[in-house]
Design brief:
Keywords: Membrane, Plasmid, Transmembrane, Transmembrane helix. This is AsmA family protein. InterPro entries: AsmA-related (IPR052894), DUF748 (IPR008023). The protein is α+β, with helices and mostly antiparallel strands. Among the domains are: 193 residues, no CATH class; 121 residues, no CATH class; 124 residues. It has a 29-stranded mixed β-sheet. A hairpin with a 7-residue loop joins β14 and β15.
């Protein structure tokens, strides 16, 4: 007889095994969780009775002393909490040096808070981490060898010494690597650094910082804001080798800093003992140059008109020189790049060598930075680049400006230093032609004299004259100009009398505005003197102009001036007191191809202001026998 099974009835007793085991496992886990929670709550409830503040105070005092290697004293335990996390707050923490000056604390902390492990505290040996320092005051001295005196014979210094010996971030000992620190928070702190080598004393106050350092062997990162001489700064730091950094050895760092009007980043290797960079990528940006200069207390000649600036470079310390590779910079939005090397020299200033290319070069600012003032700025003695370095550089610019003049495709070289400096400008496009120049300085800047040599070839003379002396006698044409001059004293326009030298001009196919030859002849027939403007308007067209003058003490002597036109030839000689914008010349106007019936050449005197001089005809000499 066949019997059917009821729906849902198990086929065998073993078929219920997996479900039953799952339920048992869930019950076990829940039981463990509940038990753990009960134990945790029980510990926190019982902790005030099991853990005394004296135990915690003694433990943290001993722990800090072991870490610092110096005696530690604590005034009292301000607060001991166990919920939600065990934490202790201490007041009046002081660390004194174990050796010299034991009564002078080099670390004073108004309030210190730290978290600790509850189980370790129950065992009587609490482990502390995640520290908070309120109003700490730290005094650090740097000796003549670059060593810092903050460390004693504690655990931290032992780890630093082993890191220095092995050149790794922490000691190789396993316990040291497991040593936990956690986070460190500083509120309203102050650090005083005294440098025995330079005698400098630097105080950083109002320090607020957050440092994340999980373990001694772990990388460190942190951010801080602080004041130095009432100037606010912010700083962030990341380093995979914090123990090497604390020991002052060469360490890999990523530092970003900002202050009003300025921010910068340095990523590479620094050596605190020697106070130098080993190799680093530097990124500096100044959004407000005057503000940043005021904050830093640093002003450099030639930067007075800078508003923004930025610089990027890979800086390498190669023994006897610094290399600046992949150099990129901007000044007032105008970019430039190049490669520079700063070579160290015994008994002399460092030598800056390299090549720089810029879109725009302001020659006035460039010369000012070299302590050469040829313009009319206020004579304020700002420090110049020649105070710190000598030069052997090549500079190129797509566009350059000098006063209200513009040059293109400029190439120049700069050699020498503050006592003997030479700037040579090569073949440069200028006013439709070409320009080359040489500027040589002896002594400190222009005060001891500067020699200038300028050669202009096939330039637009009309544009040159109108920009040099607006409103004066108009001279047009295409010509060449050679100037050799010496200037003593700053500002050629303010100190024009101090210029001396020679000027040669040769030109063709141009005109002299305001000079009417026919009007001169007509007015000279019946006038003893008259102003040039009374002779009428017009121009004197010339085919060639050849002029040489020698000048000094504010006056120029015309050695030669011959202007040949289509019909007339004009010859001039005499003195031009240019410091007073005056003329004292004699002139002779004659026909190019005189005919038998043509009258004698017209001779006259030109005097007065060069804007509208007075003409006084010179009577012809009587013929022999008259």
């Amino acid at each position: 007889m066949i019997f059917s099974r009821r729906a849902g009835q198990s086929e065998s007793p073993g078929s219920a095994g997996p479900g039953r085991r799952t339920r048992r496992l869930i019950k076990l886990v829940l039981s463990v969780v509940v038990f753990g929670a009960l134990v945790s709550v029980s510990l926190r409830v019982a902790a005030p009775h099991l853990i005394s503040s004296a135990v915690v105070r003694s433990a943290i005092e001993s722990s800090m002393a072991q870490w610092a290697g110096h005696p530690v004293s604590i005034e009292d335990v301000a607060q001991l909490r166990f919920w939600p996390r065990p934490e202790v707050t201490l007041n009046g923490v002081s660390i004194r040096r174990a050796g010299d000056h034991p009564d002078e604390p080099f670390v004073e902390i108004q309030s210190l808070s730290a978290e600790f492990s509850l189980l370790s505290a129950v065992r009587g040996k609490p482990d502390f981490n995640d520290f908070r320092f309120e109003q700490p005051q730290i005094r650090i001295e740097r000796d003549v060898d670059g060593r810092l005196d903050w460390s004693g014979d504690g655990l931290l210094n032992a780890a630093v010494r082993e890191a220095l010996a092995t050149q790794t971030t922490a000691a190789s000992d396993g316990d040291t690597k497991k040593t936990e620190i956690g986070s460190v928070e500083i509120v309203d702190g102050e650090i005083t650094l005294i440098d025995a080598r330079s005698g400098a004393r630097i105080v950083a106050d109002r320090i607020n910082a957050k440092i994340d350092w999980p373990r001694l062997a772990a990388p460190l990162s942190g951010q801080a804001t602080f004041n130095v001489q009432d100037r606010g700064l912010s700083l962030s730091l990341q380093t995979p080798t914090p123990l090497l950094l604390l020991g002052g050895a060469a360490s890999q760092v990523d530092i970003s800093a900002s202050l009003p009007g300025m921010r910068g980043q340095l990523k590479g290797v620094i050596d605190l003992n020697r106070g130098r960079l080993e190799q680093a990528d530097v990124d500096l940006s100044v959004s407000d140059v005057p503000q940043a200069a005021s904050v830093l207390g640093l002003r450099v000649a030639g930067t007075e008109r800078w508003q923004t600036a930025s610089l990027k470079a890979q800086v390498t310390n190669a023994g006897d020189e610094w290399r600046f590779d992949n150099l990129e910079f901007k000044i007032n939005g105008s970019p430039g790049d190049g490669i520079l090397t700063l070579k160290k020299r015994t008994g002399a200033k460092p030598l800056l060598i390299g090549t720089v290319a810029v879109d725009l070069l302001k020659i006035d600012d460039f010369l000012q930075a070299l302590s050469i003032d040829l313009g009319d700025r206020a004579n304020v003695r700002l420090p110049s680049l020649t105070r710190w370095v000598d030069f052997d550089m090549r500079v190129s610019a797509a566009t350059a400006t000098a006063g209200n003049f513009q040059l293109t495709d400029l190439g120049a070289s700069l050699t020498g230093g503050g006592d003997a400096l030479k700037l040579v400008i090569g073949d440069t496009r200028f006013m439709g032609g070409a320009l080359s120049a040489r500027l040589s300085v002896s002594g400190h800047g222009v005060d001891q004299g500067v020699e200038i040599a300028v050669m202009m070839d096939r330039i637009d003379l009309g544009s040159l004259v109108s920009r040099l002396s607006p409103g004066s006698l108009s001279l047009k044409g295409t010509g060449s100009l050679t100037l050799d001059a010496k200037l003593a004293g700053p500002g050629w326009q303010r100190n024009v009398d101090a210029m001396s030298g020679r000027l040669d001009i040769r030109a063709d196919n141009g005109e002299i505005g305001g000079l009417n030859a026919e009007g001169l002849r007509r007015m000279s027939t019946d006038r003893a003197y008259f102003q040039l403007s009374a002779a009428g308007t017009g121009e004197f067209d010339y085919r060639s102009l050849d002029m040489s003058v020698r000048f000094s003490e504010g006056s120029a002597e015309v050695e030669k001036a011959r202007i040949v036109g289509e019909r007339d030839t004009l010859v001039l000689s005499g003195i031009i007191p240019y410091s007073r914008q005056a003329l004292a010349l004699t002139g002779e106007l004659s026909e190019v191809a005189p005919k038998a019936q043509t009258t004698a050449p017209l001779r006259f005197f030109i005097g007065g202001s060069w804007h509208d001089p007075v003409i006084s005809p010179i009577p012809p000499l009587p013929a022999a026998g008259q």
